[in-house]
Amino acid sequence: MTAFWDSSAVVPLCCAQSATAEGRRLLAALGTIVAWWGTPVEARSAFARLVRGGELTPMQRSNAVKLLSQLRRSWDEILPTEAVRVTAESLPDDHGTRAGDAWQLAAALVWCRERPRRRPFVCLDKRLAKAASDAGFRVYPN
Question: What is the DSSP letter of 49?
């Protein structure tokens, strides 16, 4: 099985957070990660923000970057194609997404050829989770 993973769900797989155990359980249950091309940048941004906020040490960030690299080698990545851009353009109007979330949701929609049919979408961001659910994905965690 495969599931689309938003960067908000990838980050806890790489560094200890309250959602880490649940994320690992979901990864084991759902199988292969499908991720947007920009997810590594978003994850690295989150790691840097966590260091600035004192929630991660520089050493923990280094370990998180290594884990992200390992995950990335095993996931399927949706590249920034014209189809993703065209799909993303309508999402702020149709689902109230912000720009970054529009890219994530558009990538997921391209992955499933715009037929979500309750395919798994793993996301910890409430706004994006609602948009993904409204678009027809089954959002995890429930």
Answer: H
